[in-house]
Specification:
Radius of gyration: 27 Å
Number of domains: 2
Order of helices and strands: HEEEHEHEHHHHHHHH
Shape: elongated
Strand content: 5-15%
Low-confidence stretches: 201-213
Structural class: alpha/beta
Mean pLDDT: 80
Largest sheet: 5 strands, mixed
């Protein structure tokens, strides 16, 4: 299961989720920007970086670790140290947050980083100790869902979909997590298993959005044609076809420009300068 991708999407949609996992939430948490950075000199990559709105804020680094890595902490400290060396003017203070499914995934030897762990410079989060799904906000519930298997995963997925109340981004994330877990099922089969309706799927929402956009364009075109007919007289069919192919922004521009038109020549000249 590609959990890095799932957590990247979660943090991208809601950077403040990281601060729900740790104590000492910054006062300006809502202003943080999430990104992923590469330390090119060593080919290291820091999965999650939460940048404060000002250079004097705390920078948070996150790592999602679902497999045992006995050198994780040493690697993180190396990556962050190189980043700090290269970007000292952008880094006032930092904290790293490691997200584990459970304690048994954590590396066994920690002597070399014990000061970082003891001080909280490196904070550890164990998803199976956050509480049950019903006790958690929906964002944290999505994180916990990545640790569940079988019927427990299906039950929690259905609960999160109900809580989502039609929010497309959340429903898609739930569906994606379950697709990764049940590799023998297609996306459509997973949606059916979870009770996701046609109206909640990406295909339906994209088609709906496209339909609304087309409807908006047609309505705009009809209004523009009425104004043109009143100002210039009957618009020829060949010009009518051109106008009907314009985008909504182009139609809005035409609506402003037509106030200066005095003849069909002006309209044709505008259309030649604004091809479809």
């Amino acid at each position: 299961m590609r959990r890095d991708t799932i957590f990247y999407q979660l943090f991208l949609q809601s950077p403040t989720l990281l601060f729900d996992l740790i104590p000492n939430r910054p006062d300006n948490a809502d202003e943080y920007v999430f990104d992923s950075i590469e330390v090119k000199e060593t080919s290291f990559r820091i999965d999650g970086v939460f940048m404060p709105p000002t250079r004097f804020g705390m920078v948070y680094f996150s790592e999602v670790q679902f497999q045992l890595d006995e050198l994780l902490y040493e690697r993180m400290v190396s990556e962050i140290s190189i980043y700090a060396y290269r970007h000292r003017e952008q880094l006032f203070d930092w904290q790293a947050v490691v997200i584990y499914p459970s304690r048994n995934i954590e590396q066994s030897r920690t002597e070399l980083v014990r000061e970082f762990l003891a001080s909280g410079r490196i904070a550890r989060v164990y998803l199976d100790e956050l509480g049950t799904g019903a006790e958690l906000p929906i964002g944290l519930g999505l994180m916990v869902l990545t640790t569940l298997e079988g019927d427990a995963a299906k039950t929690e997925a259905r609960r999160l979909i109900a809580l989502a109340e039609g929010t497309r981004a959340i429903i898609e994330l739930v569906s994606t997590i379950i697709v990764y877990k049940f590799t023998n099922l297609t996306r459509d089969e997973v949606d059916e298993m979870l009770g996701i309706t046609l109206q909640q799927t990406r295909v339906y929402q994209d088609a709906k959005a496209e339909g609304e956009l087309i409807g908006e364009a047609r309505g705009e075109a009809r209004m523009i044609l009425r104004l043109l007919n009143r100002r210039l007289g009957l618009v020829p069919d060949r010009v009518l076809t051109q106008i009907q192919q314009l985008t909504v922004p182009q139609l809005e521009d035409l609506g402003e420009a037509l106030l200066d038109f005095t003849s069909l020549v002006d309209l044709e000249g505008w259309l030649s300068r604004n091809p479809q």
